[in-house]
Amino acid sequence: MEVRQLRYFVAVAEIGHFGRAAESLHIVQPAVSKQIAALERELGLTLFDRSRRQIRLTADGEAFLPHARRALRGIDRAAKAAADLAAGGTGTLRVGSARGLGRRLEDILAAFRGTHPGVTVELATTSSVPDKLAAVASGDLDAAFVSAPPRSTPGVAAHHLWDEPLLLAVPARRAVTAADLATLADLPLALAARDEDPGTHDLITDACRAAGFTPRPGPTLTHAQDILAGPIAAGRCWALLPTSAVRADSAAVSFVEPDPPILVPTALAVPHPTRRALTTALLAAAKTSA
């Protein structure tokens, strides 16, 4: 049974004439007659009484008509839903997030929801950039915000959004001279594990080497507030944190802009080629809000 056969049947049943039904369908009458005859053969039913000048439904045709209409309504709803999904009107968008995006993420999602109110955004927060890129490539994520992505990842396109300045988080007594990284060479550096965020890790260690020293290993940086309130406040280490992740200076911790600045590129990673219109819409919102 074909969809067109159902459409032809319903049109003839409602209009009561093969020729006028064919005109309304913008096809020739023989095509309508042929497809309805094929439908009758497949169903094993006679749907129309053709013995009179005015075409009428048989009892079987009358009984079948509401089922045909119901089937066509379902097909039309399915087609509309598919079109909405393709156009980004409805559905679910799975996005890899990250700590420290702060207000930027809120603004991007607000812009996206403003144009796509019917879409549900599911955020998956992880600090591992390689894991997020792998999830985008495999289709487990529709997009992901990543810091300092590699130049190329198979199956992924990383679109640059902004450069995030890093601030020095140092014990307050070191604040006066801290802008010069070389003055921190004697103090251990709290740094995230390289396999979590290799690009940012390398940017920071390269900045230290450019200042003339190799940083002493300190605590592994996981949660910024824990590092700030603990070892940095106690004077045992320092760290470089995104501006969006810091709070106001306390009596024990100061935030200082390094000289020269250290900027971490932030990108939205999406599948390449892009599989969904929703992903393209999120990228547009991110670029507009960045």
From TrEMBL:
Q: What is this protein called?
A: LysR family transcriptional regulator
Provide the family line.
Belongs to the LysR transcriptional regulatory family.
SUPFAM superfamilies reported for this sequence: Periplasmic binding protein-like II (SSF53850), Winged helix' DNA-binding domain (SSF46785)
Q: Which residues form the HTH lysR-type domain?
A: 1-58
InterPro entries in UniProt = LysR_HTH_N, LysR_subst-bd, WH-like_DNA-bd_sf, WH_DNA-bd_sf
Quote the cellular component terms of the Gene Ontology held in the record.
protein-DNA complex
Query: What UniProt keywords apply to this chain's record, in alphabetical order?
Result: DNA-binding, Transcription, Transcription regulation
Q: Which Pfam families match?
A: HTH_1, LysR_substrate
Which Gene3D superfamilies does the annotation name?
Answer: Periplasmic binding protein-like II, Winged helix-like DNA-binding domain superfamily/Winged helix DNA-binding domain
Q: Do the record's keywords include Transcription?
A: yes
List the GO molecular function terms: DNA binding; DNA-binding transcription factor activity
